[in-house]
């Protein structure tokens, strides 16, 4: 499957097109959430470029700092990226880490809200379902690049991976779990649940609760999907992504429980 096409002298990479489409769809969904809260939807489109740039930079930095094991074995380490700046910015070849994207986007959102005098907690709630949608769409970029596939399998929905994209120890294995698809579906379900919870429990939620739910649901799913991943990112003998997901899910669950413990302040009602 081709992963790019040309318009005259310009090469368009499908990976980037998919990422951009996911960002636009996330903004569209967030704008709908904003309208339901009687806020100005133009704010979503105004902040989108800043969140997108910060998210991509954060995602790339995360990849550079935590390259997968197969790349490390080929000598493509953090130090390699630092000494080869052109390779460091070549995001069209893949290599964007979701944890870094969320952290980068969250930082940009915080700075934007502070500048505009907006509630950061409320805006994380607004953006959370759209973030899950963007992830669901963005994972199809991994399909185009034939990356982020899982362990070998003979299941009917297994996907074929070209020999050039297989790990050296699996050169003779043709079919694998479509790990990108599993995560895409999981993110769609996450988006649907966040939207439902926002409406169902609007009278009991505090600002920031929807985002905390996102920080529980996505990491739990990602934690278990990492068991199928053939090429994790090792750090001090640990799968850094899986370990981080566990820490985030547990700390967010504790935070959500603490906010709603008996005797805590009454909820700051949110709508939508």
From TrEMBL:
It is a multi-pass membrane protein. Keywords: Cell membrane, Membrane, Transferase, Transmembrane, Transmembrane helix. It comes from the Bacteria. GO terms for cellular component: plasma membrane. Its main location: membrane. PROSITE patterns: LGT. The keyword Transmembrane helix applies. One of its GO terms (molecular function) is phosphatidylglycerol-prolipoprotein diacylglyceryl transferase activity. InterPro entries: Lgt. GO terms for biological process: lipoprotein biosynthetic process. HAMAP family: Lgt. Belongs to the Lgt family. Catalyzes the transfer of the diacylglyceryl group from phosphatidylglycerol to the sulfhydryl group of the N-terminal cysteine of a prolipoprotein, the first step in the formation of mature lipoproteins. This is Phosphatidylglycerol--prolipoprotein diacylglyceryl transferase. The gene is lgt.
């Amino acid at each position: 499957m081709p992963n790019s096409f040309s318009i005259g002298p310009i090469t368009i990479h499908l990976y980037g097109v998919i990422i951009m489409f996911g960002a636009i769809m996330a903004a569209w969904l967030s704008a709908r959430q904003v309208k339901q809260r009687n806020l100005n939807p133009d704010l979503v489109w105004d902040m989108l470029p800043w969140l997108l740039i910060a998210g991509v930079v954060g995602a790339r930095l995360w990849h550079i700092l935590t390259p997968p094991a197969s790349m490390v074995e080929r000598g493509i380490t953090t130090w390699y990226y630092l000494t080869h700046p052109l390779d460091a910015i070549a995001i069209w070849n893949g290599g964007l880490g979701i944890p870094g994207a969320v952290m980068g986007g969250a930082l940009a959102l915080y700075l934007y809200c502070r500048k505009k005098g907006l509630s950061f907690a409320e805006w994380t709630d607004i953006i959370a379902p759209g973030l899950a949608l963007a992830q669901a769409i963005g994972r199809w970029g991994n399909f185009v690049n034939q990356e982020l596939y899982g362990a070998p399998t003979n299941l009917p929905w297994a996907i074929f991976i070209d020999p050039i994209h297989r790990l050296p120890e699996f050169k003779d294995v043709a079919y694998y779990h479509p790990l990108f698809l599993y995560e895409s579906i999981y993110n769609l379900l996450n988006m649907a649940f966040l939207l439902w919870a926002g409406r169902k429990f609007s009278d009991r939620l505090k600002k920031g609760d929807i985002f905390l739910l996102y920080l529980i649901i996505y990491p739990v799913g990602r934690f278990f999907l990492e068991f199928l991943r053939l090429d994790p990112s090792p750090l001090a003998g640990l799968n850094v992504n899986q370990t981080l997901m566990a820490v985030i899910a547990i700390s967010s669950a504790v935070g959500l429980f603490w906010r709603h413990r008996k005797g805590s302040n009454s909820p700051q009602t949110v709508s939508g």
